[in-house]
Amino acid sequence: xxxxxxIAVVVCLIGWAYVAxxxxxxxxxxxxxxxxxxxxxxxxxxxxxxxAYKEAGVPKENAKxxxxxxxxxxxxxxxxxxxxxEAIDNLKVxxxxxxxxxxxxxxxxxxxxxxxxxxxxxxxxxxxxxxxxFYVIGISMGGYPAWSCLKYIPHRLSGAALVVPVANFxxxxxxxxxxxxxxxxxxxxxxxxxxxxxxxxxxxxxWLTQKWFPSFSIxxxxxxxxxxxxxxxxxxxxxxxxxxxxxxxxxxxQGDYESLVRDMIIGFGNWEFDPTEVANPFPNNEGSxxxxxxxxxxxxxxxxxxxxxxxxxxxxxxxxxxIGHLLAYKxxxxxxxxxxxxxx
Length: 344
Fold this sequence. Notes:
- By secondary structure, the chain is of the alpha/beta class.
- The protein is built from twelve helices and eight strands.
- Residues 4-20 have low confidence and may be disordered.
């Protein structure tokens, strides 16, 4: 009897551990019974998933330049770079942003990967008929979709800008010494969160929600991941964008697992390629690729993106002093980024 009780206890503990730690929480898919409503235009992809999108700028029929924007972590199509109306009108730019899989009103993608991002973008562009070629701008965690486009669909690109793009400490080309140095510059709790996302991704959802150890702090009001410059910029954004809090809630409305958790696991997991393997998509200078990096960025240490840029001399690397991770929202830098991209 004692053995049977012991076995029953072990089975119960295993079952509890699976439910509490390993089993993903249920996803509230937009447009399904009990799920959030669909309020944005969406396209249906060939695999049946939907991508929600937003169009801005001049009409695509009249546009000289067509730009697709990939948002960052815990963000959405509704809160991207602030381009001035003057720049948009003068350059005649059509802007297309979309909720990446699992964010906002876009369906989750259980098989989502770095590679799949490029083909989502390509299919979105084709369905909306924006043309054979387009520019891409990837912001922060939206940097890995931009790398994906450079790797898998370079023939569709007119140019690319990676703005404070995610840099993976475990890319094979990154020297161990540099990986250790840059990782150690990040606060301890966040450092461990990144390690969990990379080495034990099946544990990451639990790690974000547990209360025993410090976890990923980027969503906390006073996160040590933000530089003094970032804090000042964020305060100004809060005054300008009164709907920021509502937008953030909508960003994660289908559940954190398919948005925040999967994004971190992919961004800091094992990629299908190393960025240093990417070939120059514009060997005849018919376009350009830019990386924009804030020197005070704590979230993405500048030495990583500087190292990758040194390995790829065809990338135009811009390192800005006195600015952190929110570089694109500082002054008129968003317009500078746009002009450099389409006019170079």
